[in-house]
Amino acid sequence: MLIIKYQEDCQDIKSRVYRETLEFIARNSMNVTVHKFKDNQCLLEVIHKHDFSSVVTTHEISFQTSILLKGLNLVQIVIGKNSKSEDVADIIIDPLIPKSEKFFVGSKYLLPSVAKNIPIESIAKLMKMNFTLLQDEINYNEAETDLLDIVNICQKREWDSNFFGVNVGYISCLRLTPNIEKYIKKFVRKEKIDLLEYLCNCHDKESVSIAEINNYSFVDIRITFEQTLNNKMIIEESNEFSFRKGEEKDIEKLREIAKGIYKYSRYCYDTNFDRDKVFEFYSGWVEKAILGQFDDYAYILCHNDEPVGFCTITEHSFDAARIGLVGIASNYTGNRLAQYLLNMSMLQLQQKGIKYMDVVTQGRNYAAQRLYQKCGFVTKMTELWYHKWFR
Length: 391
Fold this sequence. Notes:
The chain has 391 residues and is an alpha/beta fold. Helix content is 39%, strand content 26%. The protein has helices at residues 13-28, 40-49, 63-71, 112-117, 120-127, 131-140, 143-152, 158-164, 178-191, 205-213, 251-258, 266-269, 275-291, 337-351, 366-374, and strands spanning 2-5, 33-36, 54-58, 75-79, 91-94, 104-105, 155-156, 168-171, 195-201, 217-228, 241-245, 297-303, 306-317, 320-328, 356-362, 378-389. The two termini are 29 Å apart. The model has no long low-confidence stretch (mean pLDDT 93).
């Protein structure tokens, strides 16, 4: 990866945010060469000395330099929207723009370290956002991980590879362009990838088109729901069912419940996967949640102290959490127990100070969608899952 820095002094808020974001990427990425830009000729000399596949820079890049990099088939990632090069760059990341159907924008990508170094009041004013809301969103985001995933473009999923017995790769930049596709083909050959997974923004027409042209197979719709726990929740507790945190003694029964209930997942839809392995994947997920090895823990619903349902939880920050898996034993479905379990879980989280919740489900799983909607969740995002096999 080549990092291009510009030498001019900058005092405006925008440039400072973009440059500090670039500095974070340079510090936390592997196999990085940093080049202080003088002119295109010096840049070319550096590029010809190394085997770069990608370049990351800021909005200060000129249109001529952007065209030059595109002609060299380098994946071009620009921090900060630049109207002259936005149609040339492969990826644009701009934490200061609120909305875009194509670029990676918004406070989701605003680093906490940047907000500490630059007065957040000034950033909020620039973004035309409420200061408190912006601070909450920065506390909630995962910008440090998300930014590095994007600039790394793709990665091998070691755990998935070991579990399923095939080399699994993931396109972590969430976008496809001709140059990114060339980069991915090199990655697939180098890592001997058998399966490539790609999660695509459903609004990104170029990425969808390139996925289809290059024989990626659509396997799932991924829907993210969100909710803000503002109002104090009042729930009438059941006399028949008890609610508590799951313990190791519950694992065997919870694994039994989890097995076979995730028939709408992309792994089940893709017939290249062994179905028993897929069910084991979800059973193992629940077990790891109880042990705090994947999700942080799980709340469970019991009948006569026998587990009949579970809701796994990950706490992102001091005030935000995500629901991982929700499941009810097949002989207890249809009794609104899933809704009761979910509401009781959210009540417990609210009492811990959690304000923000999100959860992901499949586009084919209508029952899960209705459940989350009944519990006050609203749609946040829709994405498309693609698989591409190489064997």
